[in-house]
Amino acid sequence: MPERLASFRGQVECQRQDSVPGLTLSGTASGPGAEPTALAFSAAAPADLPATLEDAAVEHLGGSEYRIATADRSWTISARAVHLHSEIAPQFYRAIPPRPAPWTKRVFWRVVLALAASRAGLALLRALRR
């Protein structure tokens, strides 16, 4: 049974290269995250694969066989390895919010900025810097 590796929404760029990876599909993932996604194949691209696809899906058929499918056409590719790259920063920062700055650091910067707002404060900061 085929296993879905990636589904793209909208336009997908197909980048061919002479070196590894031989084919890279880049676009926006379908689904709730809709993050930028790239799928790199360690194989040559099919000869009749166009430069762009619309609403593509990639499935692992088993072994080293993969199918790239759109609504009207599909291509089979045999690749030694496939690498999926997704932008996960939004999910990461939702799961692990940044920690607040320590109160000592906040007080220090408030004092420094308050001093920097006046000529006398700037003179004091310059004297402390020496």
How would you portray this structure in words?
This protein is an alpha+beta fold and 130 residues long. The chain folds into two domains: 3-93, no CATH class; 99-129. 25% of the residues lie in helices and 39% in strands. The chain is built from three helices and eight strands; from the N terminus they run ββββββββααα. It has helices at residues 89-95, 103-116, 119-129, and strands at residues 3-16, 23-29, 36-41, 52-54, 57-62, 65-69, 74-78, 82-86. Strands 1, 2, 3, 4, 5, 6, 7 and 8 form an eight-stranded antiparallel beta sheet that branches. Strand 1 (3-16) and strand 2 form a beta hairpin. The radius of gyration is 26 Å and the shape is elongated. The model has no long low-confidence stretch (mean pLDDT 89).
Keywords:
single chain; 130 residues; alpha+beta; 2 domains; 3 helices; 25% helix; 39% strand
What topology does this entry show?
Layout: E1 3-16, E2 23-29, E3 36-41, E4 52-54, E5 57-62, E6 65-69, E7 74-78, E8 82-86, H1 89-95, H2 103-116, H3 119-129
Antiparallel strand pairs: 1-2, 1-4, 1-5, 2-3, 3-8, 5-6, 6-7
Helix pairs in contact: 2-3
From the N-terminal CA to the C-terminal CA, the straight-line distance is 72 Å
**SSE order:** EEEEEEEEHHH
Task: Indicate the radius of gyration in whole angstroms.
Answer: 26 Å
Largest sheet: 8 strands, antiparallel
**Overall strand count:** 8
What is the count of structural domains?
2
Number of helices: 3
Overall spatial form:
elongated
Low-pLDDT stretches are none
Overall pLDDT metric = 89
| Helical residue percent band | 10-25%
Q: In what range is the share of β-strand residues?
A: 35-45%
Output the structural class: alpha+beta
